[in-house]
Each structure stands twice: as C-alpha cells, then as structure tokens.
Amino acid sequence: MTGLQMATVGQDDKARRIAVRYRSPADGTADAPGIVWLGGYRSDMMGTKAVELDRFAEEHGMSCLRFDYSGHGESGGAFVDGTISRWLEESLAVFDAFTRGPQLLVGSSMGGWIAIRMLQELRKTGQAERVSGLLLLAPAPDFTSALHEPLLTDAQKQALETQGYFEEPTPYGPEPNVYTRALFEDGARNSVLTGIIETGCPVHIIQGMQDPDVPHEHALRLVDHLPSEDVVLTLVRDGDHRLSRPQDIARMLKTVAAMTRR
C-alpha cells in the first residue's frame, strides 16, 4: 500500500490537513496518463474502487493519486464545514502538488461533480491538457439542487432554515448523512447542468439502473449537457449506486485500461 502523506490546504483558520496516498509512476512511464480518484459524499480513499484502482496502477506502472476531502476519512477538518467549493479547492491543490502530465479523473457519485468542476477550472487557467479523460461512476453533478431539493420535506426545510442543517439515515454507514444550508447554497454556485459542458477529452459514464440514490435518468441528463463526440454511457441494468461488485470493478478497470491504452 502507498504510504500516507499529509498536505495542508488553505491558510490561517481555513487551513486543513488533507490525507493523501500517491503512487509514483514506474520509470519510463511518467508521460503516460495517471489516475486520480475522486470519491463521493462521505466516502474515503480506502473504499473498494479506490483500492482496486491503485492496485491496477501498480500492476501497470502508472501513477495513482487518492486522497480524502476534509471531514472525510483520515483528513482533518469538520465534515459540516464541507461544501463543493471547499472540496474542489482541496482537489485542485492536491492535484497540483502531486501530479504531473495528463491524468484520468475517476469520479464516483459526488466525485463526478468534483471532476467536472476541476476540468472547468483547469481549462480556465490553460491547463486543459492535464486531463486526458473523465471516467464518471454514478455521477451526481448538481445533486443538491437536482436530486435533493425537490424531495425535501417541510421538516427538513425548516431545519435548514432554523438550525442550518438536517440529518438523514444512510444505508452506507451507522452515522446519518448531514446536509447543511451552506452545502445547498454553495452547490447552486457550482452548478454544471446549466449549458454545454466543454470537456475537450473523452468521457465515459458508468451508471447502475438500480441505483436508489442517483437515478439513471440523471446520467442521461448529464449526457445531454456534454458534447456529442467521444461520450460513452454504459448502463448496468442490475447495478446499484456503489458499483463495487466484482463485475463492476472489472468493468471499471477495463474502461480505465481503454482510456489510458493499457
């Protein structure tokens, strides 16, 4: 396993320690695309998909970057302080500090949103060539406004207004998910499903059709916002949100191999 490193992002009272595991490329492969893992809401870099990507990278001499957003996994910071902008800032900072050359961004659930926003910000600074492709697994761009807000109960709306957050049970762990007013407000400022998303690179989406959290119709909506060329959508009829079964992992790695010509 690659060793744990800590990177500081932000200054003064906004500084937070971000946990990173980075695998360097083998000699002679530094110019080939590496892999950058972008996890989902409340997930961490020790999950099945992230670990399997790192194993794949080791087998093929590729670089692989994994890290935990603040408030997640082994990173510092409070989860309730998290917003898309905050986690995006951390993603860009770690990307800049650890990677060189083109990278395949692999974003799962919320990580798909972060991946798209990273690409947009890199394009703004003339670094579009740093992203060789996007592999999005059950991507959840704009999940705050598109998936959650329409389903908010009156009680949840009241809790957001009065206490600034509400909690919701999750089948993915013992602790409830926490959604803050700041997350919703910041999510609106980071919306990407508002027009054409210029990528300039191949995009492959893998989406389960039995996903209870991100309906496959959401993936179809995302495709509508992507340029028509070099966009592939794979629908897995019996796939769930995690996409972590052996056959799902095999499908993900096969796609990574194709997108990096491994």
Overview of this structure, please?
With 262 residues, the protein is of the alpha/beta class. It has one domain: Rossmann fold. The chain is 34% helix and 21% strand. It has an eight-stranded mixed beta sheet with strand order 1-2-4-3-5-6-9-10, with helices on both faces. The longest helix has 15 residues. It starts with a strand and ends with a helix. The model has no long low-confidence stretch (mean pLDDT 96).
In the CATH hierarchy, the architecture is 3-Layer(aba) Sandwich
Distance between the termini: 21 Å
CATH top-level class? Alpha Beta
Number of domains: 1
Task: Give a quick account of the main beta sheet: strands, pairing sense, barrel closure.
Answer: 8 strands, mixed
- Global shape: globular
Number of helices: 8
Beta-strand content bin: 15-25%
Could you tell me the mean pLDDT? 96
Uncertain spans, ≥5 residues at pLDDT below 50? none
Q: Would you identify the CATH H-level superfamily? A: Alpha/Beta hydrolase fold, catalytic domain
| Secondary structure: helix percent | 25-40%
Rg over CA atoms, rounded to whole Å, is: 18 Å
State the secondary-structure class.
alpha/beta
- CATH topology description: Rossmann fold
- Counting DSSP E segments of at least 2 residues, the number of strands comes to 10
H-E string: EEEHEHEHEHHEEHEHEH
